[in-house]
Amino acid sequence: MKNDISIVLSGEAGQGIRTIELLIIRALKNSGYNVFSTTELMSRVRGGNNTTEIRISNKSIQSFVDKIDVLIVLSKNAIFRIENRLSKNTIIIGQDSFIEDKYKNGSYKIKDIALSSLAKEVGGLIYSNVIVLGLLSGILDINLNLIKDYITSHFSTKGKTITENNINAIIIGYEKGKEFKLEIQIEENETVKNQVLLNGTESIAIGALAGGCNFISAYPMSPSTGVIQFLAKHSEEFGVVVEQAEDEISAINMIQGAWYAGARAMTTTSGGGFALMEEGISNAAITETPVVIHIAQRPGPSTGLPTRTEQGDLNLALYAGHGEFPRIIFAPGNFTDGICLTQKAFNLAAKYQVPVIILTDQFYIDSFQNIKSIDFLGFKVENYITKTDKNYKRYKITEDGISPRGIPMHGDECIRFDSHEHNEDGFITEDYDIRTKMVDKRLRKIDSISNESIPAEIIGSKNYKTLVVGWGSTYGVIKEAVEVLNDNDLAFAYFKQVYPLPNNTKEILSKAKNRIIIENNATSQFGQLIKSHTGLEFNKQILKYNGMPFSLEEIIKKLKKIK
Amino acid sequence: MKTNFDFDQIPETDWCPGCGNFSILKVLKQSLDELKINPKKLVISAGIGQAAKTSQYVNSNCFNGLHGRALPVATGIKAANPELIVIAEGGDGDMYGEGGNHFIHAIRRNLDIVNIVHDNMVYGLTLGQASPTSRRDTKTTLQLDGVYLEPFNPIAVAISLNASFVARAFSGDMNQLKEILKEAVNHKGYALVDVFHPCVSFNKINTFKWFKDNTYYVDENYDNTDKIEAIKKAFETDKLPLGVIYKNEKNKTFNENLNAYKNDNRPLYKRKVNLKKVEKLLLTN
């Protein structure tokens, strides 16, 4: 019995790999297996080569692995890009004509399935993906009725014939899978059945709803768009205003208008779109309008690699906007944190009236995983709205820098927000003294914000001599690597709040003799931030910026070498 | 006469003596007052420029944001609280230049607001450069040999996008301006009021007299619901038409299309999220 297997589906865009992924991971989770899946896509709608990796394990997992136990080949030219990930143990399943001769030299176990002709028997090539779904179900010994139910509900709107054909496709694939007698069995875990399965996009969108989000405006940009699409789907049920803006500039300004009038609003974008929002961020800062911004990073500069992953926009988030002002930046590394931090982002934005940024990336956003469910009644939606009276001053100078926020039609006073430097009443001023006081007032908020910064989570040995530091989506791979290495001297500090740095950052870093920073970027932006705030440097860097996430093997190998 | 929209203490404006903005400010306050609008229900979303400063001089709610961005802010405000009366106000550079893309899309959304654009065909706050509506050959401090760009035609653009209310007024005729503004405020749907006004400091061509000589009012028999007739008006050049040029009340407003108001007409701030329901969404995901 193996307790950790990796299945890779490799084919062209438009072949329905996504459908296989969605249905098989659901079936696996509901059968009691931990699952993790991640997709790497070429930036095209048809053709090319895309791969989806599905990991199945007896323990909770969240990282990409290089190894391929089973490779399903769905088209020609689907192997060469991942050739170096194959081993003698890899089982390659596919139509004979899809597998180039050079792989048939006995190095790999090859199982032939006449996918095209089987699909044609069912009703056309379009059924190929569902045959593969059946095949995987057979190999993995998933209950056939369970998968049939999923198919029926998945294709419920497509009519009887299509549903029937798909059921036939499932059965044909399933029998074929059984025929192969691969006997892949993984230890089941009853508790997993009650867990929830979601992807990064859903973690952000659900977290937003839990934070009371009732307004989203965004301009579509991969890989961030799923968040607004998810909220659009649920807009009626949850009363969310959803608007596709004409550009990112509009989106960031629209959500400020919404917060001004009492909504809890967010936008979702990627680095390029966020760059267009910079002036808007600055406007939110001086008008002290709360904003929540989700940035799903992808490799830049400019168009870069639109469908790939990178942690290259931390500096952009840190320094975006002209002028000097506080902000908060979260970087969830797992979906539980994605939900909880996005939920919290709305409360903090409302409380401090500053931009709150949630930094994710393509790898985080497009991956699926099962997690324990969360007690939503533990969440509080805090609005920090003041009912105004005649003494109300919008920009009242206060000790902690927070001026109570009123909204129009709630109380006795009119509400004036101003992008110029302004006096306490919100009117233009050029008075030097007031200017200095207002800058100080706004910057004073950083102290309270810092005091409630979320500390880094330490994973591994408490008495570490070597500390690995990571943030955001590298959480899963570093955690698993540290667990695999199981070294008494080694620990991992996972930062989910990257700005302001948690107050104990210096303390946890000073304890280590050896400090290693791992980042999915080329210049170690977080390492630089830590250095500038604590004076502490990292002895070693593990950086990757080819557009792919780190693999587990890669991190283990590099940590072994440099530790 | 003092209106509900005047402050107890009259703020010092930074407009030049004789500026058309004074008349627009005065008429705006009078119009709102005559319509018995509660200042607490009114929000002016303004950009940056001499025209946008109007928002600083009206005693009401106000979001005086970025240059060019009054319309997106107004969109957010109106969508978050449909009970508010929202005016997006700024100059020709603010609305048609920096904010040109938002102008197009606010019209397409049929956002239920009044969009007042002070159109003096020149940049005032930055001291005299060409604006999107500057006529060809106008010499400025930057366009030394004269403007060679085709002037932006907001009326034609708005009509072509099937805007729900398109009007043009002249600050020199305060009575007509007031009538048009009042009609615009009462109108359900997006209402553009492009207001010609002279810039006494930087535009020596399009003066008070020039506007007086080069404009006329559409007559009583003019059918402003006829799109083709309206487009013809919009392209007239000998004399520029004033009045309500086009009206189209067929389309739903932006808010009427929002799912957020399908089952609940309360403003967003009065609602509470049902966390149990969000949890269920995750569990059944």
Descriptive notes:
The complex is a heterodimer of chains A (563) and B (285). Chain A is α/β, with parallel strands linked by helices. Chain A is 36% helix and 21% strand. Chain A contains 19 helices and 23 strands. In chain A, the strands form 4 sheets. In chain A, strands 6-5-4-1-3-2-14-7 form an 8-stranded mixed β-sheet. Chain A is globular. The model of chain A has no long low-confidence stretch (mean pLDDT 96). Chain B is an alpha/beta fold and 285 residues long. Chain B folds into 2 domains: 21-251, Rossmann fold (3-Layer(aba) Sandwich), CATH 3.40.50; 255-285, no CATH class. Helices cover 32% and strands 16% of the residues of chain B. Chain B contains 10 helices and 8 strands. In chain B, strands 2-1-3-4-6-5-8-7 form an 8-stranded mixed β-sheet, sandwiched between helices. The relative contact order of chain B is 0.13. The chains are: A alpha/beta (563), B alpha/beta (285). Strand 17 of chain A pairs parallel with strand 2 of chain B.
Identify the strand order in the major beta sheet of chain B.
2-1-3-4-6-5-8-7
Name the shape of chain A in a single word: globular
**Individual helix count of chain A:** 19
Classification by helices and strands of chain B = alpha/beta
- Care to count the β-strands of chain B? 8
Give the terminus-to-terminus CA distance of chain B.
62 Å
Rounded to the nearest angstrom, the distance between the terminal CA atoms of chain A is: 32 Å
| Average of pLDDT of chain A | 96
CATH level 1 name of the largest domain in chain B: Alpha Beta
Radius of gyration of chain A: 26 Å
Identify the most extensive interface between protein chains: A-B, 70 and 60 residues
Main sheet of chain B? 8 strands, mixed
Oligomer: heterodimer
List the total number of helices of chain B: 10
Low-confidence stretches of chain A: none
Q: Can you describe this structure in just a few lines?
A:
The complex is a heterodimer of chains A (563) and B (285). By secondary structure, chain A is α/β, with parallel strands linked by helices.
